[in-house]
């Protein structure tokens, strides 16, 4: 017989399972206002059927991984046009915060508030929706950054607070919950600092809130030069291929009730690990860990996610936690040895030159080569697996990793990310060899290739393609890297032309 405490706990966990649906819907709505896209499934001329190509164009791929007793899945989003809210253009960027706040509260033309539900205070809204509302309805607010600045001022003035309380001092754009303050504490309005006891209690409430609700930040993509390839820029991005923010953790955790349909006579729950940031140009990971769960009940929940993700324009596929069975990994599997695809950079070096990127600072050769290899991967429909599970479990093996938009293939750069201090850069510059292949020392230039062995027939669809898609992609990608039919040289020369055309 299930006692009352168990029923209450089960109800609380069941409430959490519904948060995944809300998060997926918010992610899809945000895609409508973003211009980034993952591109076609393969480079022009790749052997992917036209039906498969059309289903992948304009999509952004997300991946998930599985733990020791866990599994994970991946999703990709498509955008669609969003209608205007129809609010009159009476607000301008010079309007006061009070005027903007009153317009936000309007029952018909204001920001859509979330319905009251257990665990969530009244007058709550999603941060991404209010940012879009400001852009669409306030004259002079043309960018998301300008709208975020307005909301940050409201947060500083405490006319809005995070739904958990007041522990967060930075407005986070994305699927984050905030609420409009109806009755503010006069002392806090006047700027009096809260006591230590109050602050500690607020932080505890915030930590508890994070364990109960999905919250994901949406990354504002950095707009680089529109023409010059990034690996030819005079100054490289300070943190290439990194999407970390100062206020949002890389990985977050919530507790989920697995038995959403009440099939079991006992409490079944799991911990769900997920990325704290969502980017259109990178994979998004959802990882499940459990100790006491019925396999059939867990599979039913995940299959429900799969169906709902498809209806929202996402692609959800299972993957291994460590797709590359490298010998240095603790759980490396010699029976799953990955393939190595060499990149023929020798044909790209000009006669009389010593290095591919001669003319740039030698300290930037590593980053430029990585960005060049990334450009090739993007051409074939790969997106970055920004923070894979292996990066958390094996930080010393933090190798850049990518997944195809179909979820069928992983690629990895065979060298770890380098971050040198001044002394290390000087030593590396003095020890640089004239040999092209020794640009990376003993490490080879190319890619590690691994199939997604978790993608069974149950998970395949028109978006993933048939079982032969990965083999066709491997053959086409290998031919490109080997410069068959002069394709690699043609790509390199087209990049040089773009750089020269943008030169003053």
TrEMBL record:
Residues 43-90 are annotated as: Disordered. Residues 123-182 form the DEP domain. One of its GO terms (cellular component) is GATOR1 complex. Residues 51-68 have a biased composition (Polar residues). PROSITE patterns: DEP (PS50186). InterPro entries: 14-3-3_dom_sf (IPR036815), DEP_dom (IPR000591), DEPDC5_CTD (IPR045838), IML1 (IPR027244), WH-like_DNA-bd_sf (IPR036388), WH_DNA-bd_sf (IPR036390). Coiled coil: none annotated. One of its GO terms (molecular function) is GTPase activator activity. It comes from the Eukaryota. GO terms for biological process: cellular response to amino acid starvation; intracellular signal transduction; negative regulation of TORC1 signaling; positive regulation of autophagy. This is DEP domain-containing protein 5.
């Amino acid at each position: 017989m299930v006692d009352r405490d168990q029923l209450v706990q089960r109800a609380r966990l069941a409430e959490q399972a519904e948060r995944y649906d809300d998060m997926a819907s918010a992610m899809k709505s945000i895609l409508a206002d973003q211009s980034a896209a993952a591109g076609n499934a393969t480079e022009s001329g790749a052997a992917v059927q036209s039906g498969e190509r059309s289903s992948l164009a304009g999509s952004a791929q997300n991946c998930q991984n599985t733990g020791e007793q866990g599994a994970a899945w991946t999703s990709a989003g498509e955008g669609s046009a969003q209608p205007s809210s129809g609010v009159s253009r009476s607000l301008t960027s010079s309007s006061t915060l009070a005027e903007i706040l009153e317009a936000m509260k309007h029952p018909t033309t204001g920001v859509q508030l979330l319905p009251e539900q257990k665990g969530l205070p009244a007058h709550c809204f999603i941060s991404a929706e209010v940012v879009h509302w400001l852009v669409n309805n306030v004259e002079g607010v043309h960018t998301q950054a300008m709208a975020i600045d307005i909301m940050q001022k409201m947060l500083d003035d405490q006319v809005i607070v995070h739904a958990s309380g007041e522990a967060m001092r930075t407005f986070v754009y994305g699927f984050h919950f905030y609420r409009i303050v109806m009755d503010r504490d006069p002392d806090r309005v006047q700027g009096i600092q809260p006591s230590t006891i109050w602050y500690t209690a607020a932080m505890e409430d915030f930590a508890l809130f994070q364990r109960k609700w999905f919250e994901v930040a949406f990354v504002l993509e950095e707009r680089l030069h529109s023409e010059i390839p990034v690996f030819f820029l005079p100054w490289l991005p300070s943190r290439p291929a990194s999407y970390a923010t100062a206020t949002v953790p890389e990985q977050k955790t919530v507790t989920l009730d697995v038995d959403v349909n009440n099939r079991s006579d006992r409490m079944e729950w799991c911990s769900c690990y997920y990325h704290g940031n969502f980017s259109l140009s990178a994979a998004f990971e959802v990882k499940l860990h459990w100790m006491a769960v019925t396999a059939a009940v867990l599979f039913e929940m995940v299959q429900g996610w799969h169906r709902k993700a498809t209806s929202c324009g996402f692609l959800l596929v299972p993957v291994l936690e460590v797709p590359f069975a490298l010998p240095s990994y603790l759980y490396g599997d010699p029976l799953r040895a990955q393939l190595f695809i060499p990149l023929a950079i020798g044909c790209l070096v000009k006669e009389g030159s010593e290095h591919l990127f001669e003319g740039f600072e030698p300290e930037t050769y590593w980053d430029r080569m990585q960005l060049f290899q990334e450009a090739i991967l993007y051409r074939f429909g790969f997106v970055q697996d920004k923070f894979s599970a292996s990066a958390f479990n094996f930080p010393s093996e933090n190798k850049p990793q990518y997944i195809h938009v179909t979820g069928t293939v992983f690629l990895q750069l065979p060298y770890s990310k380098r971050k040198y201090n001044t002394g290390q850069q000087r030593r590396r510059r003095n020890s640089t060899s004239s040999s092209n292949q020794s640009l990376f020392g003993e490490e080879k230039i190319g890619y590690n290739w691994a199939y997604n062995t978790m993608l069974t027939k149950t998970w395949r669809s028109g978006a993933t393609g048939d079982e032969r898609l990965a083999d066709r992609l491997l053959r086409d990608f290998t031919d490109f890297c080997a410069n068959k039919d002069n394709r690699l040289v043609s790509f390199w020369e087209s990049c040089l032309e773009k750089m020269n055309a943008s030169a003053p």
